[in-house]
Amino acid sequence: MRRRHILTRLLATAALGLPIILPAAPAAATPAAPQRQLSDVIPAPVETSPDSRGTFTLRPHTVIRTAPGSAAAWRVGRQLAQTLRPATGYPLPVLPVRSTPLPEIALLIGGADARVGAEGYQLDVTRQRVTIRARTEAGLFAGVQTLRQLLPATIEAPTRQRTTWTVPGGRIVDHPRFAYRGAMLDLARHFHTVDEINAYVDLLSQYKINYLHLHLTDDQGWRIQIDSWPRLTTVGGGPGTGVDGVGPGFLTKADYRAVVAYAAARHITIVPEIDMPGHTNAAQSTYAELNCDGVAPAPRTDIAVGYSSLCIDDELTYRFVEDVIRELAAITPGPFLHVGGDEAHATTDEEYRTFMQRVLPLVAKYGKRAYGWNEVMQVDPPTDVVAQFWGTGTSNADLAEAAARGNKVVMSPANKAYLDMKYDRATPLGLSWAAYIEVRDAYDWDPATRVAGVGEQSVLGVEAPLWSETLRSIEDIEFMAFPRLPAIAELGWSSRASHDWESFRARLGEQAPRWRLRDVNFYPSPQVDWS
Ligand code: TNX
């Protein structure tokens, strides 16, 4: 009876278009790579309690069981099955049932340790089953990312290597230190396609990153469709735009929505940025009326900064800005809209204040929370405005004052968190104005003590920006992001108590086989012993 029941479900799974692969004969056990530990995860989990008697083995007849009636658990179950099927060849049906007699991976909403909160999870591994419990779908998804790293590296892609699919036994209770764990891509200096952005999203989500900031406009290009100002993209994002004129392209609204949806399915929220009042040459060279003298400047394809400014005293400027904010807010489900505000060197302090005091309320008018580079704190904005710190020092009076008033800060110190900085003198890509940043430099700092007067309570989280002046392809993006992105991800998620370079370095080394199997082009830093 029970068997028939499971078979019915299997067929239902097939009817949903999911591949059912009949179990192959169990592969003979081969001596495995060095035994993985329950704590061999990036970012480091908050609490691990290993139990060497509890090793679980994924087998041809293992099922993924999800709490009946939980669409959230079922969705994560399906994602887990899709992750595990290619390498194992096992059918791994997803069964929304109360119990099965089969070895199982159970995904349950509720029943977890109270500490897991909204984004954490509890993972229990015994000989019979793996159980992931969370309060939310995001928590279950985070637990699945941990489970993936606890399986042998060969889970990442089909190989000829025979593997015993074991998971070390015990319990993990895990939850993030900071609510905001971000990465940024610069589409303005060189456009990156939907496929490239999504490929990056896939990599980010494995390390529990939950925000992707898209720098959509700058002097060299405008990369998001705005219907009321159509030439922004056709001209401002058209042929010849980008650094050296070789980074053209733009996201249509449909493209943008597709990225938003792809990221949302991986629990990543898109944060769009329109940089202003500086970094606006692409718009101003396209529309002459956006310039105080009514004359369009030439398009720019060099990498200079700080020369452009919208016309602060012209009403048309605010009509333009409101049109852009309104259209962008309408296609952005996430809470934040980033207004840039950095390096406005062609704008006086007074003009800057005038501009931001008009523009920040426009973001609120369209239902979004305003976010800007740290300069935005010069205008003493309302306390719900978030600042992104990009300085290289450890003090910033405006930021400390804002934190004291209650504003939150995202930490992206350029000499620690900027993924476009070279690793060392020999790095073929990237810039070096802030620092050379080796893996250890990216890892060895504390977001809550980086800037005087901006403590743990004021820090919303961390973000690793990747500027694209020197980057073209996804391979270039990967080379700069790996292995430093996992370091920033760990600073955002893991407790300070777990911070330990030797531990991180060892866990990082074990990620390499996974990256190789997925063709991730990483920098093999000499600071790490790569497996
Ligand atoms: C500074 S950081 C910038 C960007 C550049 C980046 C290159 C910041 C807010 N502005 O315009 O792309 O340096 O590292």
Helical fraction equals: 25-40%
Ions and ligands: ligand TNX
What's the arrangement of strands in the largest beta sheet?
A: 14-11-10-19-18-17-16-15
Rounded to an integer in angstroms, the radius of gyration calculated over CA atoms is 24 Å
Which structural class is indicated by helix and strand composition? alpha/beta
Description:
There is one protein chain. The protein has 531 residues and is α/β, with parallel strands linked by helices. 31% of the residues lie in helices and 15% in strands. It has helices at 2-15, 71-88, 137-150, 194-205, 231-234, 253-264, 281-286, 315-330, 349-365, 397-405, 414-417, 439-443, 474-481, 484-493, 501-509, 512-517; strands spanning 47-50, 56-58, 63-66, 94-95, 104-109, 121-125, 129-134, 165-167, 170-174, 180-186, 211-215, 217-218, 221-222, 269-273, 336-338, 369-373, 386-389, 409-411, 459-466. The two termini are 47 Å apart.
List the helices and strands and how they pair.
Elements (H helix, E strand, L loop, with lengths): L1 H14 L31 E4 L5 E3 L4 E4 L4 H18 L5 E2 L8 E6 L11 E5 L3 E6 L2 H14 L14 E3 L2 E5 L5 E7 L7 H12 L5 E5 L1 E2 L2 E2 L8 H4 L18 H12 L4 E5 L7 H6 L28 H16 L5 E3 L10 H17 L3 E5 L12 E4 L7 H9 L3 E3 L2 H4 L21 H5 L15 E8 L7 H8 L2 H10 L7 H9 L2 H6 L14
Helix pairs in contact: 2-3, 4-6, 8-9
The structure holds ligand TNX.
